[in-house]
């Protein structure tokens, strides 16, 4: 939620905002309208919601000014019960005239930045976004946009708590109480159409300004719109019966209509015809018609019959194609409405395709078509691989590189460079036997660190030895040390972890400090919902408490929400979740400058699972991971911006066509890759695949930023779909988000390796040609120098090409 400060408003808003220094202390405002229990939601948590009053006030002057205000209950409480009673009284007498002698005068409370209070003149409001209560949102809301471009806090109307909706309906004869339900029935004192608080407020605002509902966006209401806004938001391009008016002038006008009378279009002269005044552009282009009741029904019927013939023939053709035996493999992957066309025997029922297919009413058709195309392409690739495996090895020299990992489209169209191949062999991971062979009797490694990194990149690590291998990959253990040296170093690390934990564990003055409480809350919320499908975190049994150990009590309650009343609203905890939270809270004291940031739990939880709940080892592995990825969590997001910029440059070099498409689609910010890079594809792959991917990334065999080539490989795998079907940024964003849990890891890593090797060759070729050009230019200058006497000053060197930036060259640096 954005805090509204005086600097955010225009000069006109600032002069009239509450708390203005220019307003005299004894200035009074006439309270015209008030409604209680209107909330502002600063965060996503219900406990942080702020209740208040929305009010309409009048500032008395030669030219009265009307202001819309929202005042939190806390500010009214500070003014005392008298001021509170004024707001309640006005709410109870909503029908009173503002010019009544018994009008209520108030002082607007002084605004504080943290209170979210505001008061702005109606003349400074540009539009209102009105969202009535619905099945998905029990409470309606109104967002207020100012002419200056600022947006005020969204107001949420809790009508089930508001006094105005709980008061009994009043009549001129008698007043009696009846049970109320939500939404409450309209009362005599309120407009008949008022069904919720926001509509009641709109009805009151209409008495003091002109409010126009937009024809382009149903929930947009313009306040005192300009002529341009009125023309834009009120004139429909085509009215509903404009076609009837056109066809009424055709030769079908006097023909017999087989349509029942109650279904025929109304005559143009009928007073019930809302479009008889011809307000649309299409209507205005028509010439006047007579007032006769000439019916356009036959013409409409003929037009609709033509459309029905087209639809029927298209459906018949689709049925013939999809019912063919060759189309059988892709039928299960088709959307439900298309499945219904497969045959006419009812084998595949039509059903509720919106519910089964997960296709909402407002989903983009291009995104849905792109997803369908991707599924069909993947199924076709699988079928091709099955056929290739069934056929004997051919002697033809294929132009493409076929393998079990798919066909890679290499991007060396401008140079004749050798085609790189993937070296990965994930079917033979580093197992316990191979791992033991790498060490001598005293624990000294027999192979170099580079060889270890290469084998882990190529093969991966078997699950049985991950707990031993990961500390070496991450650098927790020194590769060159022997077993005794590693044991001493590890003992020192364990002591350091205990010292860090002692800073808060069992220390109430630190544990209950406000900043620590805030960190505990953030960590607790994230840990309770991270990887809950894993057995360690899936248990719902609470941790055992040692009531005799004071520090044990603090450890138990260090990882729960600081407010015990909020526990019921969250997922249950257990011992392992609390240990995970302890590790993250200790890291907050280890890295005090950065602290804990949302997303760190996603990186720490898999390490905790692999380490079998070992706190010390999980902590130090997590420290090494954060040393690699700390820039991802900087508060100003400079690290993420730099990585996305580097990925943008990489796409421009490796796939200029895709880069131009992103440029046209306003998608060069690459926000759809943000989550991929932020937590290293943690939410894009199944849990086991995430572990295998991270091992490859941590090996740093080719590059310390290999994650960017993985991101490029994912985009390249779907480039054809993106180029063909997705032309808007939001479509690309939605499509990429829906790739989660559908990306094949081994083929992606193999393609990422090929892309890196292709990029490396491309950079080397560019450098070689630049060196040759520089050498040729030098020889040419020397020959010219001999022919021209007295020419001692050499010509300036040609400028160096900047095709490959320094950021891109950093991608070629491997781990040490």
Automatic annotation (TrEMBL):
InterPro entries: Rab-GAP-TBC_dom (IPR000195), Rab-GAP_TBC_sf (IPR035969). Residues 1-20, 163-195, 254-281, 774-802 are annotated as: Disordered. Transmembrane segments: none annotated. GO terms for molecular function: GTPase activator activity. Residues 460-701 form the Rab-GAP TBC domain. Residues 9-20, 269-278 have a biased composition (Polar residues). Keywords: GTPase activation. This is RabGAP/TBC. It comes from Trametes coccinea (strain BRFM310) (Pycnoporus coccineus).
């Amino acid at each position: 939620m954005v805090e509204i400060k005086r600097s955010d408003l225009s000069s006109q808003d600032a002069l009239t905002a509450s708390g203005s220094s220019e307003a005299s202390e004894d200035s009074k405002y006439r309270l015209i309208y008030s409604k209680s229990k209107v909330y502002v939601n600063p965060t996503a948590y219900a406990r942080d919601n702020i209740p208040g009053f929305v009010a309409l006030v009048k500032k008395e002057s030669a030219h009265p000014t009307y202001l819309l205000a929202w005042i939190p209950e806390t500010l009214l409480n500070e003014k005392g019960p008298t001021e509170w009673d004024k707001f309640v009284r006005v709410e109870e007498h909503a029908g009173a005239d503002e010019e009544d002698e018994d009008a209520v005068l108030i002082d607007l409370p002084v605004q504080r930045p943290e209170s979210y209070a505001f008061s702005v003149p109606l003349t400074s409001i540009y539009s209102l976004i009105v969202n009535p209560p619905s099945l998905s949102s029990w409470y309606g809301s109104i967002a207020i946009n100012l002419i200056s471009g600022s947006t005020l806090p969204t107001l949420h109307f809790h009508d089930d708590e508001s006094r105005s909706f709980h008061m009994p309906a009043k009549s001129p004869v008698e007043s009696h109480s009846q049970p109320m339900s939500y939404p409450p029935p309209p009362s005599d004192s309120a407009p008949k159409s008022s069904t919720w608080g926001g509509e009641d407020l709109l009805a009151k605002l209409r008495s003091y300004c002109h409010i126009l509902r937009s024809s382009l966006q149903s929930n947009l209401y313009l306040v005192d719109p300009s002529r341009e806004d009125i023309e834009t938001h009120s004139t429909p391009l085509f009215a509903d019966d404009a076609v009837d008016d056109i066809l009424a002038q055709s030769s079908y006008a006097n023909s017999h209509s087989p349509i029942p009378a109650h279904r025929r279009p109304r005559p143009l002269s009928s007073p019930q015809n809302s479009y008889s005044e011809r307000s649309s552009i299409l209507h205005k282009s028509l010439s006047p018609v007579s007032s006769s009741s000439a019916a356009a029904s036959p013409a409409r019927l003929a037009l609709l019959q033509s459309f029905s013939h087209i639809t029927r023939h298209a459906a018949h053709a689709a049925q013939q194609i999809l019912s063919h035996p060759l189309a059988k493999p892709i039928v299960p992957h088709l959307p439900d409405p298309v499945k219904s066309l497969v045959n006419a025997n009812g084998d595949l029922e039509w059903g509720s395709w919106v519910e089964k297919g997960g296709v909402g009413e407002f989903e983009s058709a291009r995104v849905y078509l792109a997803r369908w195309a991707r599924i069909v392409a993947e199924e076709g690739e699988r079928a091709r691989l099955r056929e290739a495996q069934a056929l004997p090895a051919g002697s033809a020299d294929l132009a493409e590189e076929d393998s079990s990992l798919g066909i890679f489209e290499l991007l060396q169209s401008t140079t004749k460079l050798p085609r790189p191949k993937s070296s990965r062999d994930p079917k033979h991971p580093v197992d316990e036997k191979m791992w033991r062979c790498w060490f001598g009797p005293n624990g000294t490694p027999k192979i170099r660190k580079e060889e270890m990194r290469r084998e882990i990149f190529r093969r991966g690590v078997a699950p049985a030895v991950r707990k031993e291998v990961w500390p070496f990959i991450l650098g927790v253990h020194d590769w060159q040390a022997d077993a005794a040296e590693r044991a001493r170093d590890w003992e020192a690390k364990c002591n350091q972890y205990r010292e860090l934990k002692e800073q808060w564990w069992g220390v109430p003055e630190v544990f209950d400090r406000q900043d620590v409480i805030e960190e505990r809350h953030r960590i607790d919320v994230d840990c309770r919902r991270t990887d809950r499908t894993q057995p360690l975190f899936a248990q719902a049994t609470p941790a055992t408490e040692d009531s005799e150990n004071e520090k044990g009590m603090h450890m138990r309650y260090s990882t729960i929400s600081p407010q015990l009343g909020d526990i019921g609203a969250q997922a249950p905890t257990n011992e392992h979740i609390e240990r995970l939270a302890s590790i993250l809270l200790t890291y907050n004291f280890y890295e005090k400058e950065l602290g804990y940031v949302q997303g760190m739990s996603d990186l720490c939880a898999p390490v905790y699972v692999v380490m079998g709940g070992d706190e010390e080892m999980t902590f130090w592995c997590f420290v090494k991971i954060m040393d690699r990825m700390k820039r991802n969590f900087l508060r100003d997001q400079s690290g993420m911006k730099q990585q996305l910029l580097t990925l943008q440059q990489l796409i421009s070099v490796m796939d200029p066509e895709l880069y131009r498409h992103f440029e046209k689609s306003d998608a060069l910010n690459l926000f759809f890759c943000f989550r991929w890079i932020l937590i290293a594809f943690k939410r894009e792959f199944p849990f086991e695949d995430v572990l295998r991917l991270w091992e490859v990334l941590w090996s740093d065999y080719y590059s310390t930023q290999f994650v960017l080539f993985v991101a490029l490989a994912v985009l390249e795998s779907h480039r054809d779909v993106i180029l063909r079907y997705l032309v808007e940024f939001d479509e690309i964003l939605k499509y990429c988000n829906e790739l989660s849990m559908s990306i094949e890891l081994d083929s992606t890593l193999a393609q990422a390796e090929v892309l890196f090797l292709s990029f490396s060759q491309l950079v080397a070729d560019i450098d070689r040609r630049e060196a040759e050009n520089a050498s040729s230019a030098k020889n040419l200058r020397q020959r010219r120098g001999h022919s021209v006497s007295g020419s001692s000053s050499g010509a300036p060197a040609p400028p160096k090409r900047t095709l490959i930036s320094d950021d891109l060259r950093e991608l070629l640096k491997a781990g040490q």
